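For reproducibility, we list the full input for the calcium ion complex.
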Amino acid sequence: MPASALMNVMLAAARKAARSLSRDFGEVEHLQISVKGPGNFVTAADHKAEEIIYSELSRARPGYGFIMEERGVVEGADKSHCWIVDPLDGTTNFLHGNPLFSISIGLVREGEFVAGLIYMPILNETYTAEKGKGAFLNDRRIRVAARSRLPEAMIATGIPHLGRPGQKQFIAELDAVMGTVAGIRRTGSAALDLAWTAAGRFDGYWENNIQIWDVAAGIVILREAGGFITDPAGKQVTLETRSFLAGNEAIHNDLKRILKGVPAVSAPEIS
Ligand code: IPD
Ligand code: CA
Ligand code: CA
Ligand code: CA
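The corresponding predicted structure, in tokenized form, follows.
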């Protein structure tokens, strides 16, 4: 199916940013790196890619607002549209020469997630979706996996990094999920986790305390691939949601039940 005008705008911005990221990948010793907090890095590559996406999207759709990881919120004259951008999801992988990183661009219209693009420059995989039009990996239609039993399922998650809240809670959840599924994976890019769940490479995914730019594009791609995404308690996802649970219907339901059974952990954080 030929890409729509909207998707062409998103693709052009992502491709230009991907060229910049690909040039910087493997040149880490020449990149300026800042530490936002423990275990939390940002490089000149993140900033350059974000500026490219910001200027391309602003030029193509003047007036749309933005929520971006590095620059923050930019109000637009058009209050009904907002781009949600993570220019480099998987910065820690990128810094280690690990190719599992992605560009994530989502579009919200009147509060609804309507379009998403996740681009992996090194693996050359582009995941796209618009509400009601299906989800694609490059030009091929994708669907969530049909596996419906946890003992056969491979589940992705995110592990809170150094300095992140919720480490003990995560260990309790891991303990509960680990005993029921075939395997658990951690890629280091939440956008990628959702894209790969949409493509059936993972059967489900959960992660707590992340940001809307990590998942905005993935929400549309996952849903258009036939998947379900809510918060871990099953509540509808909004711009304010910070913890997410995704999968096909059966896996989403079973993981929800398991996670609901994990008591809230009030123990002090690991330091
Ligand atoms: C990170 C990735 C990672 C998730 C972290 C995020 P960043 O984003 O999505 O998978 O576990 O919580 O912060 O900082 O590399 O864009
Ligand atoms: Ca970051
Ligand atoms: Ca991110
Ligand atoms: Ca990022």
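The chain is about 30% helix and 30% strand. The longest strand covers residues 78-89. Both points were considered when choosing residues for closer inspection.
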